[in-house]
Amino acid sequence: MIKIELWSDFACPFCYIGKTRFENALNKFEHKDQVQVIYKAYQLNPNAPKEMQGDAATAFASSHNMTKEQAKDRFDMFTKNAKTVGLEYNYDIIQMTNTFDAHRIAKYAYTVGKEAEVTARFMKAYFSEGLNLADPVTLLQLALEVGLDEKEVRAVLESDQYANNVKAQITEARLVGVQGVPFFVLDRKYGVSGAQEEEYFLQVLEYMWNEQQEINNLDGDSTTHVCTDETCEI
């Protein structure tokens, strides 16, 4: 079994793109039933507000120390990259808000085997539909759409449940060398950073599979290889 841990944030444009490219590669992988994907929480902007003030370009420019025109150029780049994998980014309606509570819901979803579905739904809601992932009503509705229990979701939103889980995974990210997302950790031996091309992910999966067939015990020391490309930096 190949274990892949994916650190990402719902508000990270390259995370959505990278996740999609990876999943496309995984669907082509002959042994995809032998791959376990574990989603890990990360926050690019832990200080993001629960309600965005003004327009997205202004908010992005302010948080990234750039002009509004530079922010718009960055949005265009994100959008063009997203289109290459069939994703629609709508920066004219996007709500750049805090994702911590969304991550808490995702950690609850993990306990019932639905974190993958929640992750996909939250990313689409954020980038394509312009929904506010810091709004509890919105989070509840999205959670219900993927089949989560209403009572349990409400209990999470009305408390601090799973907050420690989210914080622990963000801390864990630093310990394994994550400096930007998306970041893929493969069997705790190799690291792949950024929204790599689908072909690259497929090559990595095949390499990992072949390595496992040759070496049954992977407990030995290994050198971590990190690739950087199309990464959302901290």
Structure description:
This protein is an alpha+beta fold and 234 residues long. The chain has a single domain, classed as 3-Layer(aba) Sandwich (Glutaredoxin). It has 9 helices and 6 strands, in the order E-H-E-H-H-H-H-H-H-H-E-E-E-H-E. The strands form 2 sheets. The protein has a 4-stranded mixed beta sheet. Strands 3-6 form a two-stranded antiparallel sheet. A hairpin with a 3-residue loop joins strand 4 and strand 5. Helix 4 runs antiparallel to helix 5 and helix 6 runs antiparallel to helix 7. It is globular.
Structure in a nutshell:
The protein has 234 residues and is of the alpha+beta class. Helix content is 49%, strand content 11%. The strands form two sheets. It has a four-stranded mixed β-sheet with strand order 2-1-4-5. It has a two-stranded antiparallel ribbon with strand order 3-6.
Characteristic key phrases:
11% strand, four-stranded mixed beta sheet, Glutaredoxin, 234 residues, 9 helices, two-stranded antiparallel sheet, alpha+beta, single chain
Helix/strand layout:
Elements: E1 2-8, H1 13-28, E2 35-41, H2 56-64, H3 68-83, H4 100-111, H5 115-127, H6 136-145, H7 150-157, H8 163-175, E3 180-181, E4 183-186, E5 190-193, H9 198-214, E6 232-233
Parallel strand pairs: 1-2
Antiparallel strand pairs: 1-4, 3-6, 4-5
Helix pairs in contact: 1-9, 2-3, 4-5, 6-7
